[in-house]
Specification:
mainly alpha, 8 helices, about 0% strand
């Protein structure tokens, strides 16, 4: 068995063993305030980071940034690859988006994984601040609202 199939089977095993939509839903409701706290910390980090970098030289993080963006891109592509078959198997787009039974299947797990990846994507701001690039409103507004 090639490595791609082994990885896919390992993910299916994880999905079967650990993913439960009712538990995920319960967790998301219970920890809503943690997301709010993380968002507040993110805004605090932006202001603290920008002030800390005012009198410092910018960091050269090209290799690290390429690795970071490549990892996020490959993760997004793989998640999309896993998510779309369930979406296409639904009777309609409305069912795929609104029917909660879809969330009990593979698509639900990959929707959850996509949601969790938004936390990792907050790291994008680190690179903007550390490289002393202009942090535009759209960048941080996007991360706060997503």
């Amino acid at each position: 068995m090639d490595s791609g199939r082994r990885l896919n089977q390992a993910l299916v095993d994880i999905e079967d063993k650990y993913y439960s939509f009712p538990l995920i839903r319960e967790w998301a409701i219970e920890y809503t305030y943690h997301v709010v706290a993380l968002t507040i910390l993110y805004v605090f980090f932006i202001h603290l980071g920008v002030r800390a970098m005012e009198n410092r030289l910018k960091f050269e993080l090209r290799t690290m940034l390429v690795c970071w963006n490549s990892g996020l891109a490959w993760y997004s592509i793989y998640s999309f690859w896993q998510f779309v078959p369930g979406l296409l198997a639904a009777e309609s787009v409305g069912d795929a988006i609104c029917d909660v039974t879809y969330m009990h299947k593979s698509g639900g797990m990959w929707t959850w994984m996509f949601t969790l990846s938004k936390i990792a994507e907050l790291g994008d701001t680190f690179f903007v601040v550390a490289k002393k690039k202009k942090l535009i409103f759209l960048h941080w507004f996007h991360h706060i609202t997503v």
